[in-house]
Amino acid sequence: TGSNQGIGYGIVEKLAQILDSAIIYLTARDIERGKTALSKLNDTLGSKKKSDIRLHQLDITKEDSVKELAEFLKKEHNGLDVLINNAGFGFDYDAVEPASVQADVTIGVNYYGTKLVSSYLIPLIHAGGRVVNVCSEMGVTKGRYDQKSIDKLKNAADESVIDEFVEEYKRKAREPNPRKEDVSCMVAYRVSKTAEIALTMVHHLM
After folding, report:
1. Is pLDDT of 194 > 90?
2. DSSP states of 82-110 as a string?
3. Which of 24, 78, 82, 186 is deepest in the core (most CB within 10 A)?
């Protein structure tokens, strides 16, 4: 997911050179940017390309979009072998949006979006397949949260514990005049990535 630029683009570029006769789907929220990325990849790789790279529109925050991709993969390939959850978002340091908006959008993409895609696509993964979630060192818990919160996330048996973790931050972000050290674009990103790591651990237990 999120492969029309950055890390996602690089992952597609690398996999296309090392996987023989594979089909790799480059997904992008903006289909025109996806087309540009696909054209660039094909031109850049040339004869080095061993796999077939295809484009599919995907907005991981929209259930209709995620459902459409799942139905397409089921119909065309009877599922998939590997899901790489890479799509992510973070506000710039100088963002002027209120803390509540930054929290909603950042967590909505990085955690809830990843969760939504996973809920539709993991059931379609063939035996022996894999899920790779591209997280971040920002999500490391040590020294950034109280021990009670860390223990709850580490011992989470299902997604509801993680949901409560991110919703607690969103409630804090909606408070009037929150402290910047408690609520900011960087803290929102950190919380979203901590939640994504915890989600990975929960899915590993499934």
Report:
1. yes
2. EEEE-------TT--S-HHHHHHHHHIII
3. 24
